[in-house]
């Protein structure tokens, strides 16, 4: 089922009836759009939102494991850092769900991922403190952080319609 015609397409069709053959939609210029499909989160965005919302909720429901990974020397109490990062994950995950807040959520989540990376390094370096988690798993997740950042970067981009079609999203 194709989306309803835009105002420009309707006007072009009406002009075409009055003065000659109508132009097909592929001849119309691309326009930034009010197309419903562009505003819906893609499956990738929904997955990221669920990941961040779920992690954020866990920071509040079961904060102790998160408290333990806060590196020593941080100028905040471990519980405060846990709750702040949980709130940021919740806000970012929820922000990804709406097109108006998606770009800001992207920036906030990228900043959060940079901010918590030292905790991930601390966990890998002090693996014996986090048993039964295997040391190899703690080290293996470090290179996954840039991949997660890339996914967040892509998820927060504004999608624009081009030539009657939306570009593929994340």
From TrEMBL:
It comes from Deinococcus aerius. Keywords: Membrane, Transmembrane, Transmembrane helix. It comes from the Bacteria. This is DoxX family protein. The keyword Membrane applies. Residues 1-27 are annotated as: Disordered. The keyword Isomerase does not apply. The chain crosses the membrane at residues 45-62, 74-97, 104-124, 136-153.
